[in-house]
Amino acid sequence: MRDMIEPQPTQKIGKMKKLRRTLSESFSRIALKKDENTIEEICVTKMSTRNCHGMDSVIKPLDTIPEDKKVKVQRTHSSFDPFEKAANQVKRVHSENNACISFKSASVGKESPKVRRHSSPSSPTSPKFGKADSYEKLEKLGEGSYATVYKGKSKVNGKLVALKIIRLQEEEGTPFTAIREASLLKGLKHANIVLLHDIIHTKETLTLVFEYVHTDLCQYMDKHPGGLHPENVKLFLFQLLRGLSYIHQGHILHRDLKPQNLLIGDTGELKLADFGLARAKSVPSHTYSNEVVTLWYRPPDVLLGSTEYSTCLDMWGVGCIFVEMIQGVAAFPGMKDIQDQLERIFLILGTPNEDTWPGVHSLPHFKPDRFTQYGPKNLRQAWNKLSYVNHAEDLASKLLQCFPKNRLSAQAALNHDYFSDLPPRLWELSDMSSIFTVPNVKLQPEAGESMRVFGKNNSFCKSLSNSKH
Questions:
Q1: Which domains can be identified in the chain, with CATH numbers?
Q2: What is the DSSP string of 438-466?
Q3: Which of 275, 243, 265 is nearest to 432 (CA)?
Q4: What is the dihedral of CA 131, 136, 142, 147, to 10 degrees?
Q5: Residues 318, 237: Cα–Cα separation, whole Å
Q6: CB neighbours of residue 262 within 10 Å
Q7: How far apart are CA 190 and CA 158, in angstroms?
Q8: What's the CA gap between 243 and 429, in Å, rounded?
Q9: What's the CA gap between 26 and 378, in Å, rounded?
Q10: Beta bridge partners of 262
Q11: Which of 269, 292, 220 minimizes the C-alpha distance to 455?
Q12: Cβ(330)–Cβ(227) under 8 Å?
């Protein structure tokens, strides 16, 4: 009998060793699997979401497990069993791993809160801002070396837009001028500055989504040769100065003022556009490139090589555009080169010297023997239509000053007597209010037409596509 009972403890010890070995192997496999999932678990357990107070609150993986799936460890008063505890630990580790994997799988394809901010929770497949497929291309409006512009329609709100699609070259990355334009326009909110609706960045393109505006000042003047209606000139100039005053007060220069970059809406609202060459201005003046502003609208200080300038750079362009709207021809249409452009300017305003322009002899490209010596003329001798409108010649002469510091500022120009017959309410408008919200302020019919008609061809968009972005 003793011989028959003796083997039992031995068998029991063998079974216990076998069980320990089995558990040890299980723990080894779990540890290995846990090592393989280390990055996954860290990513999941550290994922956070932004709460309403702007603080990061951690989402714990176990919080995503339904109550009926959670493993509950029974705590009893029974004797301590190490093998039962080990088994429960195995279950808990497996459960946690499964929870992490399930959480990650459920998270795949979800968008960040920033991307989803425009969509409705009840319609997850609805179009969203910031997505290329949120806009429908209707027709191509222009194409250049750097960008293509389309007329488009937003699928989010149904509004017409202008899609400026900038092609990105892999070796060059995103053009800095495009980044500059986008960053500046995002912060500019004014009735006389084109509105940037959206920015879409993909590997191949950068798309700037603008409000759609029917035409530009260049096209408008082409349709009405010989000069515009004097009252329309006044309203266009007032809006141009209003927009410039706004950006200049924010220490921003446009640097590329020309009729192609001034949009005209169907009610006559003028908007500054194409801020690819614009930049924030430091105080005092910083050194910038002198290769800015189209030749006809480029001031003499920049033509002579000056790279230190301020808001007076834009004001020369305002004077040129003002004369062109009244007279019907460009003020200084240089046909050859910078030398020819300067000669045309000096022919009317006089060849500068140290008395009329302190410091002109120190400019890189000023060589007195290279220029014919001209005396200054009255502007009406060159542009006779300035004499037809009260105070027009005086305003033009204060804008077209060779010495940069003598040019009128945008804010000072708004208070010039030339605008004295406009309704006083125009100076009280908020930034986002159009001047056409004031009673009796409207464009007049141009010569030979009873109503203004805008064509479908948008030369503004063509100029956008040719801008160096």
A1: 132-211 (3.30.200.20), 215-453 (1.10.510.10)
A2: STT--PPPPTT-SS----S--HHHHHHHH
A3: 243
A4: 10
A5: 8
A6: 25
A7: 22
A8: 12
A9: 99
A10: 272
A11: 220
A12: no
Each residue's pLDDT tens digit, 311-349: 999 999 999 999 999 999 999 998 888 999 999 999 999
Retrieve residue 461's tokens. Answer: 């968009």
The angle that helices 230-249 and 312-327 make with each other, rounded to 10 degrees, is 170
pLDDT digit string (tens) for 124-152?
555 666 677 889 999 888 776 677 888 99
Higher pLDDT, residue 19 or 247 = 247
Rounded to 10°, the helix 38-46/7-36 angle is 60
Q: Average pLDDT, stretch 95-101?
A: 42
CA–CA separation, 28 and 22 (whole Å): 10
**207 closest CA partner among 131, 272, 113:** 131
| Distance in angstroms (rounded) separating the CA atoms of residues 393 and 413 | 13
DSSP 115-183: GGGGS-TT-TTS--TT-GGGEEEEEEEEE-SSEEEEEEEETTT--EEEEEEEEPBTTTBS-HHHHHHHH
The one-character DSSP state at 224 is S
CB 194 within 8 A of CB 210: yes
Q: What's at 142, amino acid-wise?
A: G
Q: Which is nearest to 314 in space by CA: 380, 222, 230, 249?
A: 249
Does residue 198 carry a catalytic annotation?
no
pTM of the model: 0.67
Residue from 256, 274, 301, 314 carrying the catalytic annotation: 256
What's the length of the chain? 469
Q: Write the DSSP assignment of 377-428 as a string of letters.
A: --HHHH-GGGGGSTTHHHHHHHHS-SSGGGSPPHHHHHTSGGGTTS-GGGGG
Return the pLDDT at 349.
Answer: 97
Q: Using alpha carbons, list the distances in angstroms from residue 98 to 44, 45, 91, 146, 296.
A: 12, 13, 11, 51, 70
Residue 216 token pair: 């530009």
Please confirm whether the linkage preceding 284 is cis (ω < 30° from 0).
yes
| Edge-to-edge order in the sheet of strand 205-211 | 135-143, 147-154, 160-167, 205-211, 196-201
Q: Which of 193-207, 292-306, 417-431 has the highest mean pLDDT?
A: 417-431
